[in-house]
Amino acid sequence: MTEPIVQELLNAFDFPGTLQDFSVYGSGHINDTRRATFALPDGQEVHFILQRINTGIFTDPDGLMENIVGVTEFLKQQIEKEGGDPARETLTVVKTKDGKPYLRASDGGCWRCYPFIENTVSYDLVETPEDFYKVAQAFGHFQMQLSRYPAETLHETIPHFHDTPDRYRIFHEALRADKLGRAKLAKPEIDFVLAHEKDASALTGLLSAGKLPLRVTHNDTKLNNILLDRDTGKALCIIDLDTVMPGLVHYDFGDSIRFGASTALEDEQDLSKVHVSLELYELFTKGFLETAGAVLTPLEKETLPLGAKLMTLECGVRFLTDFLEGDTYFKIHRENHNLDRCRTQFQLVSEMEQKAAEIQKIIEKYA
Ligand code: ADP
Ligand code: GN1
Ligand code: MG
């Protein structure tokens, strides 16, 4: 509350009432997220999400916010047509008093504001399989809604975001430099990355051969990027729209499986707890294809498991690269945090390989 930025935010946005609280919120790895609480004269409370955009990562905040305003306004029209509640089923960008989609503060920080969507939860781990099925339907539905969005108007907020071979290139640079001498702490993980390098281009290869179409994708479909209604359990609102860009359907399917079909947290240190749940894998496949299946080609559907494996491998490679580079990208909360995260990802990749035949059966059942 005493941070200098607070007064600047209060001056820039037209908030109601008086500020009561301004606390760090959520478990995202990228942006600096706060929940601001305002008290109204009648004693009621109103909350907002205030986020300092990580401009080290999103270097074009104007383009980024233009994407988010464009996508959310488009989604609001779709939601209205479907009889939903546009104020709860997508984000709303609160403009500054002078009509801008974010504040550029005097220290250079870029702050955006969303109304806090009340009475919702987001999970870091699936609590009930039924929730995950609903999440799958929601991500598939989101994909369908955005299939009519003019993709050519979107800024590419992070170039080569899911270009797995490019992630390998950056990994090799970090390993060669090994600037903190950490490579010796991650020998088995480095070997794992190298042993899987041959798999890295499977999706980009199909894309450049013209066999898979580009769509508008979310690209960061982990479970804590969707809000569920606390009372009804409805998978209500897909958030974290920073990486909505043209991509393959495999990125959205794959990243959801990577995070949500795991039996443990992304940073679990006890690997005996980390497994791919085939029950969750199946429920996600079922839900996702129920809502998005109609527009997907047979090859897209058949190759979805490749998306799950490659998104998990790629994420592990990114965590390991960040570990080698000194934890400059993903927020960490303890020593070796990125190495722990990388280990869970590789454990999941190994299990996807071991369970490939069962996974294939799941896909055949729903494709
Ligand atoms: P990051 O890019 O760092 O992951 P997110 O945009 O995902 O940041 O936000 C972090 C967390 O804040 C989310 O996981 C969610 O719990 C919460 N959150 C974000 N926006 C809202 C909102 N409008 N209403 C309620 N909770 C939100
Ligand atoms: C980051 O922003 P957040 O925490 O939802 C990352 C994703 C990773 C994820 C791993 C912009 O997502 O790509 O898959 O961490 N987002 C960005 O948990 O790099
Ligand atoms: Mg997030």
Helix and strand topology:
Blueprint lengths: L3 H9 L5 E7 L7 E8 L5 E8 L8 H21 L4 H4 L13 E2 L5 E6 L4 E2 L7 H18 L17 H14 L9 H9 L6 H7 L6 E3 L8 E4 L5 E4 L6 E3 L1 H12 L17 H15 L5 H5 L1 H22 L11 H18 L1 H11 L1
Antiparallel strand pairs: 1-2, 2-3, 3-5, 4-5, 6-8, 7-10, 8-9
Helix pairs in contact: 4-8, 4-9, 5-11, 8-9, 8-11, 9-13, 11-12
Bound molecules: adenosine-5'-diphosphate, 2-acetamido-2-deoxy-1-O-phosphono-alpha-D-glucopyranose and magnesium ion.
Could you provide a short overview of the structure?
Helices cover 45% and strands 13% of the residues. The protein is built from 13 helices and ten strands.
Number of domains: 2
Q: What's the helix-strand series?
A: HEEEHHEEEHHHHEEEEHHHHHH
How many strands appear in the DSSP assignment? 10
Largest sheet: 5 strands, antiparallel
The gross shape turns out to be: globular
- Output the CATH topology of the largest domain: Aminoglycoside 3'-phosphotransferase, Chain: A, domain 2
Task: Summarize the amount of helix as a percent range.
Answer: 40-55%
Named once each, the bound ligands are:
adenosine-5'-diphosphate, 2-acetamido-2-deoxy-1-O-phosphono-alpha-D-glucopyranose, magnesium ion
Helical/strand content category: alpha+beta
Rounded to an integer, what's the Rg over CA atoms?
Answer: 21 Å
Number of helices: 13
What proportion of the residues form beta strands (DSSP E)? 5-15%
Q: Output the strand order for the largest sheet.
A: 1-2-3-5-4
Jot down its keywords:
3-stranded antiparallel sheet, alpha+beta, Phosphorylase Kinase, domain 1, binds adenosine-5'-diphosphate, 2 domains, 13% strand, 45% helix, globular, 367 residues, Aminoglycoside 3'-phosphotransferase, Chain: A, domain 2
